[in-house]
Amino acid sequence: GDSVTQMEGPVTLSEEAFLTINCTYTATGYPSLFWYVQYPGEGLQLLLKATKADDKGSNKGFEATYRKETTSFHLEKGSVQVSDSAVYFCGTSGSARQLTFGSGTQLTVLP
Amino acid sequence: EAQVTQNPRYLITVTGKKLTVTCSQNMNHEYMSWYRQDPGLGLRQIYYSMNVEVTDKGDVPEGYKVSRKEKRNFPLILESPSPNQTSLYFCASSLQLTGSYEQYFGPGTRLTVT
Predict the structure, then answer these.
(1) Measured between CB atoms, does B32 come within 8 Å of chain A?
(2) What residue of B is the nearest CA neighbor of A96?
(3) A105 touches chain B (CB under 8 A)
(4) pLDDT, mean over chain B
(5) pLDDT at B99
(6) Which residues, 6 or more positions from A107, have their beta carbon under 8 angstroms from its beta carbon?
(7) What distance in Å separates residue B100's CA from the closest CA in chain A?
(8) What percent of chain B is modeled with pLDDT above 90?
């Protein structure tokens, strides 16, 4: 079945630091890839997505590029803010019937 | 407002007492699913439904039941809850599963089974 492996946390950064959260996937067919974000006490929200190889998803200063050759979809942001503190989940919809998530990465940004 | 609602938001119960967590969406979505979130394990899918009367097991279905009699509702039923079902539960829906359709998540239900 499909699987997603993402960088274990927690990750703690200072404000304005560069962020990378690694994500690799195993999926059949031509999967779409997603990053979801979960703010404290809330459900998950879609942050960005990419539907085919070499696509770049972007939103709120976050970016991720669909790399088929390395089966990766790493999340990056050039300058994090305190308000970015949250749990980030990488996911794939490779299977026709399920969306598979990674285990989540807790990010804390200190002022 | 497009949304997924879950009730209750918090529930404390005792082992063996049947309970139902309701989930409703107002977006006419075909696909709905239930997840549980546990520390260190992330989100794991319990059950999903591709449409009315079509449901299937996810990765961790043991101890749970679901039904999809109407398109908008997808209740999660715990016939005989046990302490290992203490968790944070999320319902989600999307227009379809295939392709790049966004999943919309409810606010979560925190369940404690003593």
Answers:
(1) no
(2) B98
(3) no
(4) 93
(5) 60
(6) A9, A10, A11, A12, A13, A19, A21, A80, A84, A85, A86, A87, A88
(7) 6
(8) 82
